[in-house]
Amino acid sequence: MEVPCVRVEPEAGEATRSTLAEADLINDDYEITVAEGWLYVPVTDPEALSSEYEVVERAVDERQSQTTPAELLSFEPSYERLGKAALLDEDDTERARAIADAILESDLPVDTVLNKASKVKGETRVRDWELLAGEGTEVVHREYGCEFALDLAEVYFSPRLATERHRVAQQVTEGEHTFDMFAGVGPFVIPFAKRGADCVGVDVNETAIDYLRENARRNGVEDRVTAICDDVRDVAPDHESWADRIVMNLPHSADAFLESAVTIAGEDCTLHYYDIQHEDDPFGPGERAIREAAEPEYEVSVETRHTVRSYAPHELNVCLDVRLER
Q1: How many helical (H) and strand (E) elements, i.e. helices and strands, does the chain have?
Q2: Per UniProt, what is one Pfam family of this protein (predicted)?
């Protein structure tokens, strides 16, 4: 049967396979195939691929079944994948150990298992981890053609937001001035820069900024990325009227930074404002806060009201894509 496949040269095969796997785009029902000097990687959604990939229709063999953690446990465990790490959220120590053992015995490409040992805490939103297998908390994560090194014990990062980051990155055009007010290790900044934008990323976490600089080098965009460790409210006056696009992904308190966003915004600027609100009115509070901060200096128009995910019972994580025109 012919299925859509990414076609790459064999020497680029492992890097391509890893990138597609982290974006959850590999079609596991079919085998990765080498033929006529090319490697063919079956994919589930060709539309989600970046333009750097060549997609062809190719007849490939159906894949033989692999051993999964669920088959070894007799129940379906809950975990997230981040690079070659599996992330658990288990209060029961024995259950966590059993899941970790099953993950390692399965055919998953995982060598590290971590269990959440605390909630996200502090200004830098990091958490404690219990190391169940592996050598540490540093991982390398691949997402939509970008590679991110990070230490989960030192920085905040959510693999669940990969699709949302890709949605925003697809709107970026070459030559834009983009500003991420809470940049972390660069999950918005790096794909923006790869699309040809000039990017400024700010964060109060010095370790995150170190990783942002490293990730800019890893992805070959260091000449288009400026990384600043500081409170963005102190940085804003130095970038007055500079940005064509601003990301505000600090959903519990982004409204406290809107005055700085308005300072940074250029003549015509798109603002991606993230918020967490009750399902009865998930977009209203953010829109009202933006209008209060930006009007009458700017004409404010909401272009997209987008639900990112369910955050908690009756609470939604949402994004407002807002155009500010002076």
Answers
A1: 9, 17
A2: TYW2_N_2
The answer to whether residue 143 sits within a structural domain is no
**Domain ranges, residue 231:** 158-325
Looking at residue 65, its pLDDT comes to 64
Q: What is the dihedral of CA 187, 193, 198, 204, to 10 degrees?
A: 20
| 7 lies in the same domain as 132 | no
- CATH number, domain of 265, equals 3.40.50.150
- Please list the alpha-helical segments (H only) found in 12-88: 13-22, 69-73
In a domain, 219, yes or no: yes
Structure confidence by residue, pLDDT tens digits, 66-97: 788 988 998 999 998 888 999 999 999 999 99
Listed in order, strand segments (DSSP E) in the chain are 2-8, 33-35, 38-42, 55-59, 80-82, 85-88, 112-116, 129-133, 138-143, 146-151, 177-180, 198-203, 225-229, 243-248, 265-278, 299-312, 315-325
Residues 220 and 109 in one domain: no
pLDDT bucket at 214, cuts 50 / 70 / 90: very high
How many CB atoms are closer than 10 A to CB 26?
20
Question: How many folded domains does the chain comprise?
Answer: 3
Per the domain annotation, does 144 fall within a domain?
Answer: no
| φ, ψ for residue 116, nearest 5 deg | -65, 130
DSSP-assigned beta bridge partners for residue 12: none
Weakest mean pLDDT among 140-154, 190-204, 285-299:
140-154
Percent residues over pLDDT 90 in the chain: 76
Q: What is the pLDDT of residue 94?
A: 93
pTM above 0.85, yes or no: no
pLDDT at 50 over 80: no
Which amino acid makes up residue 55?
Answer: V
What is the spatial distance between Cα 76 and Cα 297, in angstroms, rounded to a whole number? Answer: 54
Residue 147 lies in a domain: no
Selection from 286, 288, 295, 221 nearest residue 265 by Cα: 295
